[in-house]
Amino acid sequence: MGRYAGKSFITEIFGILLGIIFLIPFYYVVSNSLKTFSEILTNTSALPKVLQFQNYVEAFEKLNYVKVFSNSLIITVASNLVLVIFCSMAAYMLVRTKKKISNILFMTFVAAMIIPFQSIMIPLIKTTSSLGLLNSIWGLVIMYLGFGSGMTIFLYHGFIKGIPVELEEAAIIDGCTRIGVFFRIVFPLLKPITVTVIILNSLWIWNDYLLPSLVLQDPELRTIPLATFFFFGQYTKQWDLALSALVMGILPLLLFFFAMQKHIIKGITSGAIK
What we know:
Layout: H1 2-33, H2 37-42, H3 54-63, H4 65-96, H5 100-112, H6 117-130, H7 137-160, H8 165-173, H9 178-189, H10 191-207, H11 210-215, H12 224-229, H13 239-273
Helix pairs in contact: 1-13, 3-4, 3-13, 4-5, 4-7, 4-10, 5-7, 7-10, 8-9, 10-13
């Protein structure tokens, strides 16, 4: 027993040290967001001498935080909605349609995951410009659907293969249509992987800078990462305000993650029981 207790103790110590290492960047961001600009330049590692909450007030006003927050929220929620609906339906058909074309389409989606964005950036902007999707939130949502489909379909595909087909056959015998089978029988069983998909895509979409910077030119359409970038000018870098803006950008995502954490645990448990 002592040997196993010793192994457990070492594992716990290692986990705590690893957690501390991961928290170091958060310490630097939060502590320096509460300092004056000169204090940041003097010593970035030290705790603030006087807490400068005025940094947050000023950053809130310069960011137009309510507007950029609402833009980021609309883009993230809408993108997640279309990704979950379309990709879960696509993955379901790819799994249940036992044809060679299904395997080819699935491998195409998986292969698309390894294509670097930079290689298609210029053709993408030319195409979206000709379609009138530039400088549009909904155009950006369509692009996120395209770029996020590969990973999302891959995750749903693996999970749906574990759902017994007998459940669907019983529903069809009772008179349920194919669409009804998916939304009434299959989709509720996808809750564990749906939560995972939403979290992963939210982390990506909320923090994305490159694609919105190419698509959204109107200042009224800026997301939080785009607005934060404007604290870094050609000749000045307002680190005190930029770090405060970063904290205000990270905080909603952290709250969302902690709120969804219990659903992840419930989802894993229900998936194990299933």
